[in-house]
Amino acid sequence: MGKDIYLVIGGSGFLGRHIVDQLRARGDNVSVFDIVQRYHDVPFYAGDITSVESLSKALRQSGTTCIIHTASPPAGLTDASIYYKVNVDGTQAVVDAAIACGVKKLVFTSSAGVVFNGGDIIDVDERLPYPSVPMDAYNDSKAKAESVVIESNGKGGLLTVALRPAGIFGSGDRQVMAGLWEVYEGHKTHFQIGDNNNLFDYTYVGNVAKAHLLAADKLETPAPAPALTALGKQPVSLDE
Ligand code: NAD
């Protein structure tokens, strides 16, 4: 199979930029689609993901075969409607444009928060269902966007995957360190929540970016056929 041509949606952002850097470092053809332009070293398409038209134009002009969709409003906004508009309607528009333009692969950045209900989550895997009462609009919209992506797998030849990072840290972060700094500046560091045994997963941004590249590469590998004996069947002889 030939090399993919990538469009990183949200490629001007923290994680998106690391994905762009890693694709460039391995010599791949990559463009960015975003509402803001922060870098000028790759082809840039200005647009909002809620517009199928803008997306389709960028996909056709760039010849994209693989979309990596990292765009989202930041967590913590008071206006919930922006999350549903961008994350749910916008992600549906990404899927629609991808299928209309014959894109082969879509890697979506979801969030570990999609299964968080405010309680401890220990030793679980992706089979854990979404909570009946979502944590907040951001996480609810990410769960709904993730469902849109997963349900579109196989439609019109599009292969999809969703990744769920927890907290991301590293160079270019505008959320995690800013929040910690605000606590420090506000002299709130003497408050402790819990018994000092609370855990939260953080992953280095370079590793999260690498996971997106690996997921994209893996999407084109056909799933191995299950052994017939594993399905409780006997092989059929073609000579009979
Ligand atoms: P970021 O804000 O740095 O980057 C997001 C990018 O998306 C920005 O460049 C922004 O301009 C763009 N964008 C926003 N709305 C858009 C729209 N309507 N159309 C086009 N572009 C739009 O955020 P980030 O921290 O890099 O997060 C990237 C992804 O990772 C998000 O989907 C987020 O939900 C997910 N995530 C982040 C964290 C974290 O700790 N940062 C943790 C878990 C999941």
UniProtKB/TrEMBL annotation:
Swiss-Prot/TrEMBL keywords: Oxidoreductase
The keyword 4Fe-4S is annotated on this UniProt entry: no
Domain 3-beta hydroxysteroid dehydrogenase/isomerase: start-end pairs: 7-228
Gene Ontology terms for molecular function: oxidoreductase activity, acting on the CH-OH group of donors, NAD or NADP as acceptor
Entry's Gene Ontology BP terms: steroid biosynthetic process
Similarity comment: Belongs to the 3-beta-HSD family.
The protein, known as: C-3 sterol dehydrogenase
